[in-house]
Input
Amino acid sequence: MPMPTRRDALWLAAAALAATPAWSQDRIAVVATFSILGDLVKNVGGDRVEVTTLVGPNGDVHVYSPTPADAKTISMAQVVVVNGLGLEGWMTRLVSASGTKAPVVVASSGVTPRRMTERGAGATAIDPHAWQSVANAKIYVANIRDALSRADAPGKDGYDANAKAYLVKLDALDGEVKEGIAKIPPDRRKVITTHYAFGYFGDAYGLQFIAPEGLSTDSEPSAKDVAKIITQIRQEKIPAVFLENITDPRLMNEIAKETGAAIGGTLFTDALSDPRGPAGTYIDMMRHNVREFDRVLAP
Output
C-alpha cells in the first residue's frame, strides 16, 4: 500500500473536520464500498453489524470520487469490505489516507475472474462485475461471513447461521434466474446494455451481451464503435437495448432509434435502487433484471 502523500495528509485533515459517523456502540462498524456489497454484509451480519456504504443506491462505483468524510468513516471502521477485481481504483489511496487499522476484505476472493478484450482498445482486462452470477455472490457471502467472524469472534455462530439461511435464499434465486432465462427463445438471447456489466451473468445463464462503453462507465465509446454495434444489431436482428440505472440513457436511445430495436426497461447492474424501488436488495435486483429480460425478449 503506498505511503500517504502531502496531498493525502491535507485531505485527511479535512476529514477530521467532517461529521463523525453515528456508529452504534454495541455493533460492529463495517464499511462497504457500494450498495450491493452493503446488502450482502447486512444479510450476513444481521443485528450485530452497522453498515455504511460509500457509494449508495443508484451511484456509479466506477467513477466515484471519495470525499474527506469517506476517509473519516473508514478510519473508524472495524471491517472494510471491497469488491476487488479492479472495480474500486480509488480505494487503495483512500484506505491509506484514512490511516485505518481495520482489515480490508476482498469479497470476490476465490472467484474465477473473467477476462475480455475491451472494445476498440485491443487489450484484455478483468471484468469486475462478478456478483452478476449468483454462484459468485455465494462466494462473496462466505468471505464476508469469515471476515466478520474474525473481527467479532463472539458473533461467529450468528454469522454462520445468517450466512447459511441467506445461502439457501441464493440457491432458490439461482433457480429462479435459470427458469426465467429458459423462457427466452435461444435466437432472442442477445441484448445491448450500456456498459459490459453482465459478462458473468451471460456465462452463467446463457445470454449474450454487447455494450458500447466497455467494462467501465468512464470509457467513452467512439463513433466507430457505436457504428459497429448498430451494424451488428441490424445484421443479427438483436431485439432490444436496455438502459441502466447508473448511466446516461441518451446513447442507448440513439442506438434504438437508429436500429428499431425495442427499448427495454431499466436494469440494475452496479448499484441497487433506493429501498422503495424495484431493486432495493441484491435478490430483488436479480429478480427485477430477469423480469425485464422476459418481458421484452420472451414470446
In short: The CA atoms of residues 6 and 108 lie 32 Å apart. The beta strands are 28-34, 49-55, 79-82, 104-106, 114-117, 124-127, 190-192, 208-210, 240-244, 262-267. The two ends are 52 Å apart (CA to CA). The chain has a mean pLDDT of 87.
